[in-house]
Design a protein that fits this description.
The complex is a heterodimer of chains A (628) and B (330). Chain A is of the alpha+beta class and 628 residues long. Chain A has helices at residues 6-23, 49-59, 81-95, 116-120, 130-133, 144-165, 187-200, 223-246, 273-281, 295-302, 357-369, 409-421, 438-491, 498-527, 532-564, 568-599, 619-622, and strands at residues 30-38, 66-69, 73-77, 104-112, 127-128, 135-142, 173-176, 179-184, 204-211, 214-221, 254-258, 262-268, 285-291, 311-315, 321-331, 335-342, 349-355, 375-381, 384-389, 400-403, 428-436, 495-496. Chain A has 17 helices and 22 strands. In chain A, helix 1 (6-23) runs antiparallel to helix 13 (438-491) and helix 14 (498-527) runs parallel beside helix 16 (568-599). In chain B, a hairpin with a 1-residue loop joins strand 3 (77-81) and strand 4 (83-92). The chains are: A alpha+beta (628), B alpha+beta (330). At the A-B interface, helix 9, strand 21, helix 13, helix 14 and helix 15 of A face helix 4, strand 5, helix 5, helix 7 and helix 8 of B. Strand 21 (428-436) of chain A pairs antiparallel with strand 5 of chain B, so a sheet runs across the interface.
Chain lengths: 628, 330
């Protein structure tokens, strides 16, 4: 009766194997590495950079364990700190010829020492939280009100332009927070205006009203438009933050949205909070200026002559020079949106730009006078400008216009991103800040590890003494639980923090409950006079309902923490919930598997090694008569 | 080895009234301390600045406190943290402080700490040998308010979730009994934190909610036995059934809690100051969890008038072949 079919053993074996493989990378520790990423928003790394770095290292006589490109950066791992430092110097001098204007960030990092075949299986070590590795944490609040106000402001300008274009007279447009109010003298104009605006500006909803002799039209942002504005504001802010944080040379920054209007920035390894804040808070600016195409300017661009008066020389993304007038046509403040898209006629990729009403007026005037000339879009970061793109003006432009021509889809995406990334969509404020020193992090890891280890040892010792063989099996099941939990956390690439370690410890302490329940039940069955095999069978069966109930209630508490918790509490909850799930598997299926393997085959099993089963001398006195 | 050699069921329920009085008294005392002293919330809830520093040699807390008082930054708290060399400084956030000012306050405090060691700082952003900044946290007041609200929501979800589950799985009387018994645990833990003015931070909150799940778990095991005993022993009265259930789970209760406590104790000893509050909350929670599940939950279920019919009725409907309790043992 205590036999498992082969497939159950197979499941256990597979779980054990997967657990081992995915837990393994955590034990290899970390090796020094050098990470190269782009320092400029305009420079994108591609796979060609890896062989280049290989080359640099070969010339410097250094041997890296591997050099690999992972989409955003190149990582090279080294055997020791000395090689890492030398490699960094070699790469810096080879990639950044001008130390004042670095194109690449070369940062020191730590990479897992786990072998490549594990990495290829996506078996990666757990990600350590800031409290375990040291660094800076910022929680930033995006001011959504001002993002909405900005949008409403832009729409107000659009309304003005639209009404003027169609010659619809109004008696004043006012904006109050996110609402626009237009007054009209007569009903016909209002109806005409309403039809026009509803058609042209789908983001607004309108409400007609009357105020004395005046008719008024109240416009407010539709809820879905509001949501879109907020979503795009936060995405744009995150993109901008990414670009800025890249500059700090942080190996693995975490920048993610939290809730509808918050951004979390985690910079592991950074200790200088002031500098980090400075860079995060800095504004990059976008400027639109005319390109000077005169003969002198062309000569100046090739280096044959001096830069003409009133112009400046900038480089474009490929390093080519361009002479641009000093006069600024528009700044990034006027640019409300930039999206990649496709040209409606040629179906080529393009970038659609939207400027606000003021910008539209200026664009209209400037473009009318400069058809056939080029306009440069410049991005200023750290006081240095760079040409993002310099398209030719084909006709008179309004509030919406496109940049087209010989672009691939990814180029269009990049350009749109760069145009948007210039500035923050809405101001942000730091509302929470944490700094953890690296030595404190290392100490925390050690403390967490010791807690789990000694607690585990105490439980294991007790279980083995009290329940003998069943105790050994329970301990193995508990160990298996720990293995599965670590494997699951590594697989999910969850961030492990100190509360997470506490949750591991607590989960193990609670998981043993299932085995205690089982063992006690088996003893009880034996005490009741059941045969050894039947006692095992019934003990497991009866304990199961209790184990399920008690785990479900614990899981409810865990889920509540997961749903409503944030920061450290969520880290705790994730581990806690996963631990409850793995403990049900390990305590019931795995330990039963071991028991079956050991005892299942013995047909005439006389006794079970589960410690002493004490029977009261007057056993019959206590147990009431069972009725059917 | 067998620790529990109990010959006959211990008549726990005969003393139910006494236990309930003890519970009521501790509960009221906890409420009293919560009301009069209040919880000592960490800056995660109140907003403010926390700075941890490590001194090269043993730090003189009084001297640091004196120096900080001279800066007039409001109610600055200075305390040792873990060892005599580690010091934690807590500063409340004056309303309306801007983020730049926060940084300025931190550097001012740090400069004062260095100066107290006879190593005045060379300039802003410099550091001194004697004092090392280990951790700096700044929490805005709005974050704290949200945490409190989220904590309350989590608590509500746990209570409702567990009650619904127990009402479905057992009977509403058990659900009410389990929740009352375990909320009483939570209030008592909070009462301890209020009485000793231990810092109540986010990890402690996590511990409190985990305890709620954990000690309900305890009640569930006993209820499970009560249900089984009702089915098996038709002649027993409700009293006897509850006594039998408690007695027969006694060994498991003590061993399980002992094991969990061993783990928590290990956290208390090796986990360092960060896990201290967490481990303390769990320790109190585990001890009172045993007490409340055994003596309070079952007693309340009894007062509420749990009857054999409440559970047996459910059993006839329950024809799930996998349910080991479905087929009563003949």
């Amino acid at each position: 009766m205590n036999r498992y079919p082969a497939w159950k053993y197979a499941i256990i074996a597979i779980a054990l194997l997967i657990g081992l493989i995915y837990t393994l990378p955590n034990f290899f520790g970390e090796a020094p590495a050098v990470q190269v990423s782009s320092a400029k928003a305009t420079l994108k790394l591609d796979a060609a950079i890896a062989p280049r770095i290989d080359d640099v290292l070969a010339k410097a006589g250094l041997k890296a364990d591997f050099v690999q490109f992972d989409g955003n950066s190149v990582k090279a791992r080294f055997g020791d700190l000395d090689a890492q430092r030398k490699a960094k110097d070699a790469i810096v001098s080879a990639l950044n010829p001008d130390p004042n204007d670095p194109s690449y960030i070369v940062a020191l990092n730590l990479l897992s020492r786990s072998p490549q075949w594990l990495t290829r299986l996506h078996a990666l070590p757990m990600f350590l939280g800031l409290d375990l590795r040291g660094g800076v944490y910022f929680l930033m609040q995006v001011d959504m009100k001002s993002a909405l106000t900005k949008k409403a402001e832009a729409l107000t300008g659009d309304i003005r332009t639209l009404l003027r274009d169609k010659n619809l007279r109004h008696a004043g447009i006012t904006r109050d927070a996110n609402n626009v109010e237009i007054r009209f003298r007569d009903r016909e104009t209002m109806t005409a205006a309403r039809n026009l605006l509803a058609d042209q500006l789908p983001d607004l909803q309108w409400l007609e009203g009357q105020d004395g002799t005046d008719f008024k039209l109240g416009g407010s942002l539709k809820p879905e438009a509001m949501k879109r504005v907020q979503d795009s504001a936060i995405t744009q802010n995150i993109t901008t933050l990414h670009n800025r944080v890249n500059e700090l040379g942080v190996a693995e920054p975490v920048i993610q949205q939290q809730g509808p209007d918050r951004v979390v920035v985690q910079l592991p390894g950074v200790q200088d909070t002031a500098k980090a804040k400075d860079i995060i808070g800095r504004t990059a600016t976008l400027e639109l200026r005319m390109v000077d195409d005169s003969a002198e300017a062309i000569a100046a661009a090739t280096g044959a002559g001096p830069v003409p008066f009133g112009t400046e020389r900038f480089n474009d993304r490929n390093g080519g020079p361009l002479i641009v007038k000093r006069q600024v046509v528009l700044t990034g403040d006027n640019l409300t949106d930039a999206q990649p898209g496709f040209d409606s006629q040629t179906h080529e990729p393009d970038v659609n730009l939207t400027v606000d009403a003021k910008g539209a007026r200026i664009m209209q005037d400037v473009s009318r006078e400069n058809i056939g000339k080029r306009m440069a879009i410049l991005l200023f970061e750290k006081g240095k400008g760079e040409v993002v793109t310099a398209p030719v003006i084909r006709g008179e432009l309004g509030s919406r216009f496109q940049i087209t021509g010989r672009m691939t889809i990814s180029e269009a995406n990049d350009t749109a991103l760069l145009l948007r990334a210039g500035s923050l969509a809405a101001p942000m404020e730091i509302i929470e800040e944490r700094t953890v020193g690296p030595s404190l992090g290392a100490e925390n890891i050690l403390k967490g590890f010791h807690s789990v280890m000694w607690g585990f040892a105490a439980i294991a010792l007790f279980m083995c003494l009290y329940y003998l063989l069943f105790g050994v099996i329970s301990t193995l099941a508990l160990g298996f639980n720990l293995l599965l939990l670590l494997a699951l956390l590594s697989m999910l690439q969850a961030t492990l923090s100190l509360p997470g370690i506490a949750a591991i410890a607590l989960t193990l302490g609670m998981a043993i409950d299932a085995n205690v329940l089982i063992n006690e039940r088996v003893r009880e069955e034996l005490r009741g006079g059941a045969s050894a095999q039947k006692a095992i069978h019934d003990g497991y069966d009866r304990a199961w309902a209790t184990i399920l109930d008690s785990n479900v209630t614990t899981l409810i508490a865990g889920l509540a923490l997961l749903v409503f918790g944030s920061g450290p509490v969520r880290g705790f909850a994730v581990v806690h919930c996963l631990g409850i799930l793995t403990s049900m598997f390990s305590a019931v299926v795995f330990s039963r598997g071991l028991v079956n393997l050991w005892y299942g085959r013995q047909k005439k099993l006389k006794s079970v090694s589960i410690g002493q089963v004490w029977k009261p001398a007057d056993a019959s006195a206590n147990v009431p008569a069972k009725t059917t | 080895m067998e620790f529990f050699r109990i010959r006959r069921d211990i008549p726990f329920m005969r003393h139910a009234l006494v236990f309930n009085i003890i519970s009521a008294v501790t509960f009221l005392a906890a409420v009293f301390f919560l009301a009069t002293r209040g919880l000592h919330f960490s800056i995660e809830f109140t907003g403010g600045i926390v700075m941890e520093a490590q001194y090269a040699k043993a730090a003189e807390v009084d001297k640091i406190r004196e120096k900080l008082d001279a800066l007039q930054l409001g109610d600055a708290q200075v305390a040792n943290f873990g060892s005599t060399r580690d010091v934690v400084v807590r500063l409340p956030a004056p309303p309306g402080t801007k983020k730049d000012e926060q940084a300025a306050i931190v550097s001012k405090v740090y400069a004062a700490m260095c100066a107290a060691e006879g190593q005045p700082l060379a300039g802003p952003g410099a550091s001194c040998e004697a004092v090392k900044q280990q951790r700096v946290d700044f929490v805005g007041p709005q974050v704290g308010r949200e945490l409190a609200v989220d904590g309350a929501k989590a608590l509500a979800m746990v209570i409702v979730g567990i009650m619904v589950y127990l009402a479905i799985r057992f009977e509403w009387k058990f659900a009410v009994a389990a929740i009352v018994a375990n909320l009483h645990d939570v209030v008592i833990i909070l009462g301890f934190f209020a009485f000793f003015q231990w810092e109540f931070n986010l990890t402690v909150l996590a511990a409190v909610l985990a305890v709620l799940g954990y000690s309900v778990n305890e009640s569930v095991v006993i209820f499970d036995r009560i249900r089984e005993a009702f089915r098996r022993y038709r002649k027993m009265t409700t009293h006897e059934v509850i006594d039998h259930a408690i007695t027969s789970t006694m060994s498991r209760t003590v061993i399980t809690h002992g094991c969990t406590q061993a783990m928590v104790l290990s956290m208390l000893i090796f986990g360092g100051p960060t896990l201290h509050g967490f481990a303390i909350a769990l320790t109190i929670g585990i001890l009172f969890g045993i007490y409340s599940s055994v003596f309070v939950a079952a007693a309340i279920a009894m007062w509420l008038g749990v009857k054999r019919e409440d559970l047996i009725k459910a059993a006839t409907k329950d024809v799930d072949p996998d349910d080991p309790n479905a087929g009563a043992v003949v």
